[in-house]
Amino acid sequence: MMHKNAQNVAVALDVKDLHKSFGEKIVHRGVSFQLREGEILGLFGGSGSGKSVILRSIIGLEKPDSGQILFETQDLTSLTEWQLTNIRTKIGYVFQNGALFDSYTVEENLAYPLKEHTKLSDREIHDRVNQMLELIDMKGSNDLLPSELSGGMQKRAGLARATILEPEIILFDEPTAGLDPVNTKRLLDNIHKLKSKGITGIFVTHDIPSAFEIADRIAILYNGKIAVIDTVENISKSDDPVVQAFVSGHEHDQEK
Fold it and tell me: How far apart are CA 85 and CA 63, in angstroms?
C-alpha cells in the first residue's frame, strides 16, 4: 500500500534517518529520502560513501544501526530473514557483477525465481524466460553458461533475472561499471524498455552521463547524508558547490 507525501505524490519507499557505522567508520549520519512511485532515482556519492550499503539495507543484507525503511506499511529494518524472503520478491536487486549462478544455464538462472516464488508450469516458465531474453536482446542464449557470456551479456541476464518476477521496486547497484560504451548503451536501452513499463527504481552509479539519461531525480550522498535531491534538469544546471564538485569531478575520474 502506497502513501502520499506532502506534494501528494505516491511514495514507494520511505527512507528515514538511517545511521550506520562499521567499527570506527561512520557511513550514514541520518540518510533520509523518498522514492516516488514510477520514478528512477539516481544515487550519487564518492567511493565509501555508503551508496551500496543503502541498497543492501533495503533488502536486509545490512542492518542499519538506527532509522527506518518503510515499504508497504512495513519497516524493512525490523523484519526477520523469513519475512525478508517475501520482500525480496517485490524488490529486485541488480548486482554489479550480474551475480548469476555459474553452473546454471541462462534459462535456469532466469527460471530460478519463477520456480521458487510462483506456481507457473514449466511451459509457462519457459515462455516467460523467452519473453525476457527477447526483451534484453539475448534471444537463443537459453543454454549458454555465464562463463560463455560477455560481461555485457552477463549484466543484461542479471537484469532480466532481477526483474522477471515483475518486482515493484528495482535496485540497480553500479549496473554499468566495467562496461564499454556500446554495452553501456545496450544495458541502458534495456532499462529504458523496463522504464516504459512503469518501473520504480534506485540507480546507484559513478557513471553520471548514464544516470542523467535514465533517472528522473538525482540524490547526492555527501558526508553521510543526502545533501541534495532534485530533478535531473535542475541538478545539471545547479550552481550548488556540492553538486558542481561532484558532477565536474567525476567526469574526469569516474571511479574516484
Answer: 15
